[in-house]
Design a protein that fits this description.
Rossmann fold; EC 2.7.8.-; undecaprenyl-phosphate glucose phosphotransferase activity; two-stranded antiparallel sheet; six-stranded mixed sheet; single chain; alpha/beta; EPS_sugar_tfrase; 49% helix; 472 residues
Length: 472
């Protein structure tokens, strides 16, 4: 069974990690004292003394790897998450070793001469080797699973949208190693097939299937109208000892990472979790916006000055175009841009979005839109607090009224400040692109916000966010 295989694999993984730690440590010692590369021959302490430290270092790092979920099955842990966990575990190990050395040097003379530089090399080498071995293991597992080995056999209970979506993802990712044996459902005829997966009986057949002990997992995928059966099905599955998971048929309502609360034993699932509703998070982001906007204003002031001169010289009208947009908590504000169109009446402005070869756009305006240089005055919106450096792009009031009725969850974007750039923009959804896709990306940003994600978006904006082929 998969459970037994996983236990054997974890033991092997621990042995490999121990080997990698020892090799990394020896390589660090060699690089520091014996390679001649760093011009540090010998050392105050012997090789044997340094090797004795492995008695503590190896178990310490293995415990840290376990604490940072590095023995979680590869099926459910992404590469980026695994890499960040490897880095974090090694950083914590590095800091713990330094703390111990600092405290012991007052009591044991030999620890004063213990090379801190060598431990820095150990940190770097071990991080690289651990991640490299994990990538090799991941690739090996994916290869054998694609060839039909090391599979996890799953039975679905309930035919619903959740069941179809689960099957879709399993078949799109054969490297996960899941094999759906069939579906049990009381309302769908036996033999009904979805992408090669058959309905093989009713829910009552569980009583006969579970004792055969040929399944690794039961996935409960009941439709909303059948949730009254859930408690009984879970009880039957748990009696058999088969791992059971629940895939709710309301994934279009709750986020992929729901925020749960415990009210004295009563689980409460929040429909939407917004990290920026936390006062500390909001304060950190606001400080970043103020400092960032001031730096950008100073840094880009020559470009803004040249742009202002070009706008003023090439067409009559105001230098700055102010337009009403909807921001945080649905509050309207005036967003600033360099004017890129000939002067129009308010009625003409409301006619609609710009389109390709729009005659209202000036020659210099077309260039400014393509390069996003017209957006720079929004740095002052950020400084004022109307906007953020990163966030969902704001829309005009008439479009907000239109989209709130047409697009589910559209108004959630107004739970955070709008941004000069955002997750949707750096993924190509700017200008004349799908509104629904933009909202999907905006919701992902809102629910998964971190300072690191903001920095990533700003970085991506520099390299692929300024030039916009969909800007007219």
């Amino acid at each position: 069974m998969i459970k037994d295989n996983q236990q054997h694999f974890n033991r092997l993984h621990v042995i490999i990690d121990a080997f990698v730690i020892v090799v990394s440590y020896i390589l660090a010692w060699w690089l520091k004292f014996s390679s001649g590369i760093l011009d540090s021959p010998g050392g105050a302490l012997s090789f044997g003394f340094y090797m004795k430290a492995l008695v503590v270092i190896v178990p310490l790092y293995l415990i840290l790897y376990y604490a940072f979920n590095l023995y979680t099955p590869k099926r459910v842990q992404g590469r980026r998450l695994e890499f960040s966990n490897v880095v974090m575990a090694n950083i914590v190990g590095f800091l713990l070793i330094f703390t111990v050395l600092y405290n012991l040097q007052s009591y044991v003379d030999q620890f004063r001469n213990f090379s801190r530089e060598m431990f820095f090399y150990f940190f770097a080498i071990n991080t690289v080797l651990e991640e490299s071995f994990r990538l090799l293991i991941r690739q090996f597992l994916r290869t054998i699973r694609k060839n039909g080995y090391n599979l996890k056999h799953v039975l679905l209970v309930g035919y619903s949208r959740a069941a179809e979506q689960y099957i879709d993802r399993i078949q799109q990712n054969p490297q996960w190693g899941y094999n759906v044996r069939g579906i049990l459902d009381d309302n769908i005829a036996r033999g009904t097939t979805y992408k090669g997966v058959k309905v093989i009986g009713s829910v009552g057949n569980l009583l006969y299937i579970l004792p055969e002990n040929k399944l690794d997992e039961i996935a409960i995928t009941l439709g909303l109208e059948e949730y009254y059966k859930l408690e009984k099905i879970v009880a039957e599955c748990e009696k058999s000892g088969v791992h059971t998971k629940f895939i709710p048929d309301y994934g279009n309502i709750i986020p992929t990472k729901p925020y749960t609360e415990d009210l004295l034993g009563l689980p409460v699932i929040n429909i939407r979790y917004v990290p920026l509703s936390n006062t500390f998070n909001a304060l950190v982001k606001r400080c970043m916006d103020i400092v960032g906007s001031l730096i950008c204003i100073v840094l880009f002031s020559p470009i803004m000055l040249l742009t202002a001169i070009a706008v003023k010289v090439t067409s009559k009208g105001p230098l700055i175009f102010k337009q009403e947009r909807v921001g945080l908590h649905n509050e309207p504000f005036r967003m600033y841009k360099f004017r890129t169109m000939y002067v129009q009446t308010e009625e003409e402005e409301r006619k609609g979005w710009t389109h390709k070869d729009d005659p209202r756009i000036t020659k210099i305006g077309r260039f400014l839109r393509k390069t996003s240089l017209d957006e720079f005055p929004q740095l002052f919106n950020v400084l004022k607090g109307d906007m953020s450096l990163v966030g969902p792009r704001p829309e005009r009031p008439q479009y907000v009224e239109k989209f709130r009725e047409e697009i589910p969850r559209y108004m959630i974007k107004h739970q955070v400040r709008p941004g000069m750039t955002g997750w949707a923009q750096v993924n190509g959804y700017r200008g004349d692109t799908s509104i629904r896709k933009r909202i999907e990306h905006d919701l992902y940003y809102i629910e998964n916000w971190t300072i690191g994600l903001d920095i990533k978006i700003l970085f991506l904006t520099v390299f692929k966010g300024f030039i916009n082929k969909n800007a007219y």
